[in-house]
Design goal:
The complex is a heterodimer of chains A (261) and B (273). Chain A is built from twelve helices and no strands. Chain A has 261 residues and is mainly alpha-helical. Chain B contains eleven helices and no strands. The chains are: A mainly alpha (261), B mainly alpha (273).
Chain lengths: 261, 273
């Protein structure tokens, strides 16, 4: 049970090569279920309405503008998360004292729901850019730390002892022994971290922002126009699939290529 | 989620315990306690320096936590939230185990369910919360359905992994010796699956807990999320932090308890950790 459940799905898709048939059937079933929901309850708008609204948002310029604003915040927060998370993770993985001191705090941070960060940052920083960026940072950080610590601890102790015996400097050990081991699992960590941080971003923009994808979806929700809200849900889903399949998959293979050489 | 596992990864365990046997390292409880105390003190200093009602100190928050616990509010709202999660979990088990079983036995169904399960497991909590509120209104149904939907992928994927772990040679032997399907299920599948189902429950629980609370933030009459929302609307940061602290403590305790139970129950199985 080492592979997290959510990452196992795309791996299965690749390994078994189930082909387009099963995936097409799945997509068709999802849309059919949606249409059924739309017919059964008058609260759920139909697929056609939702796509039409999405096209209208695009024609309006709202789609790209809000997405760009949100991506800026997201990338800034994630960059901070990665730098701080990898540094803390390597320190905790290498030093027993640091690990003992910080593990419980990391577990507590992991257990805190993203919504609390979104609400607190809204109160602290108001409706500025700091609210979403800090929420992204805090929501993503513990996932990076936990995974990097695991990766560093999985480095064989013999390798490090040998490096020491041959007088390899600390910087060299970091560069040639620890960095390659951590690279692969950082991608896995980033996957989780992105899911959590993206959720945090949406919530922070929902509660404390006047721009961005979260704000825009709230705009439609407040207007009681659920087709607008669902149009943005489509954007969220496409973003998730894009990140997972198109960006992280190849990056992960590149980062772990050295293992199969 | 895997990341919450209370046990160390198996690769690190023997090395670590051997090292500890040779030279007893620093006590975990002591060092961690000092670190937490240091964090609390720096929080206190920070709150003193900022001196603003939006950054309350740990003393105020601690007092509020005690107040909530003594007044019984904590018990009532946590019981309400946990009850909804358990109801949702029951539904997730009923739906997730057959899906996982089908996925373990059929390559086509694995491909078929992959995408829906990926979506269910990764949809932002915001989408679930709004879905629960819009479709089911304010009440218990929304959080129950939402926690069921969130935990189905964890149950299903772990069950499918368990079915795949069943030894094919054993299955063939059962067939050769004319065992009935009931016997195969009882003696082959059930022992193989229980461990995986338990793991699925553990990871799913951590996920469901958060999304359920978020759904309560958006619309509920009671529960932890609802209390956080109420404190937020009253600009009561002390209350928000107090409820969050209780939430985190409860979640860590449940997680530890499940981890402990898992190790006890499946101590006979060396392949699980």
């Amino acid at each position: 049970m080492t592979a997290p459940a959510s990452t196992r799905v795309p791996a299965l898709l690749r390994r078994h090569g189930t082909g387009m048939l099963a995936v097409t059937a799945a997509v068709a079933s999802i849309f059919a279920a949606w249409q059924l929901l739309a017919l059964a309850g008058d609260r759920v708008p139909s697929l056609a309405d939702t796509v039409a609204r999405l096209a209208a948002e695009h024609a309006d310029g709202q789609l790209m503008a809000n997405f760009a604003v949100s991506m800026n915040r997201f990338l800034l927060g994630m960059a901070l998360t990665l730098v701080v998370g990898v540094v803390l993770g390597v320190v905790m993985g290498r030093s027993r004292w640091a690990e003992l001191a910080l593990t419980d705090l990391t577990m507590a941070a992991l257990a805190a729901p993203a919504v609390i960060w979104a609400l607190l940052t809204t109160m602290w920083f108001g409706f500025g850019w700091l609210t979403p960026v800090v929420t992204v940072f805090l929501a993503g950080l513990p996932f990076v730390i936990v995974n990097v610590v695991k990766a560093v601890q999985a480095v064989p102790g013999e390798l490090i002892l040998m490096s020491r015996a041959f007088g390899v400097s600390r910087a060299e050990v970091l560069r040639h022994v620890i960095a390659p081991a951590v690279a692969g699992s950082t991608v896995a960590a980033v996957r989780f971290s992105i899911m959590s941080a993206w959720n945090g971003l949406l919530l922070a923009e929902w509660f404390g922002s006047t721009s961005g994808v979260g704000w825009r979806s709230r705009y439609w929700y407040d207007a009681n126009q659920l087709d607008g809200f669902l149009a943005w849900v489509l954007v969220f889903v496409l973003f998730l699939i894009l990140v997972d399949q198109v960006i992280l998959g190849p990056v992960e293979r590149a980062a772990t290529r050295w293992r199969s050489l | 989620m895997t990341l919450l596992s209370g046990t160390r990864p198996s690769a690190a365990t023997p090395r670590r315990s051997r090292r500890r046997a040779v030279a007893p390292g620093p006590s975990r409880a002591l060092v961690s306690g000092i670190a937490i105390a240091a964090a609390l003190v720096s929080w206190w200093l920070f709150a003193r320096v900022i001196d603003d009602s939006v950054v309350p100190g740990p003393v105020d928050v601690g007092a509020r936590v005690a107040e909530i616990v003594i007044s019984g509010d904590a018990a009532v709202n946590f019981a309400s939230s946990i009850g909804k999660i358990l109801a949702g979990f029951g539904i997730a088990l009923i739906l997730g185990i057959p899906i996982g079983f089908a996925m373990g036995r059929s390559r086509f169904l694995t491909g078929y369910f992959s995408l829906p399960l990926f979506l269910l497991g990764n949809l932002p909590g915001l989408v679930y919360a709004v879905f629960g509120l819009v479709v089911f209104g304010v009440g218990a149904t929304g959080p129950i359905v939402v926690s069921a939907l969130v935990s189905i992928p964890f149950v299903a994927l772990n069950v499918s992994e368990g079915v795949r772990s069943v030894d094919g040679a054993l299955l063939a032997m059962c067939r050769a010796f004319g065992r009935t399907p009931a016997q195969v299920a009882r003696h082959l599948y059930v022992p193989a699956l229980t461990g995986f189902v338990f793991t699925g429950i553990r990871y799913g629980f951590a996920m469901a807990w958060k999304v359920e609370a978020l759904t309560e933030v958006f619309g509920a009459r009671d529960g932890v999320g609802f209390m956080i929302r109420r404190a937020y609307q009253e600009f009561d940061v002390v209350g928000m932090l107090a409820w969050t602290a209780l939430f985190v403590i409860t979640m860590v305790l449940i997680e530890r308890g499940l981890g402990l139970a898992e190790r006890r129950l499946f101590a006979w199985r060396k392949d699980l950790r």
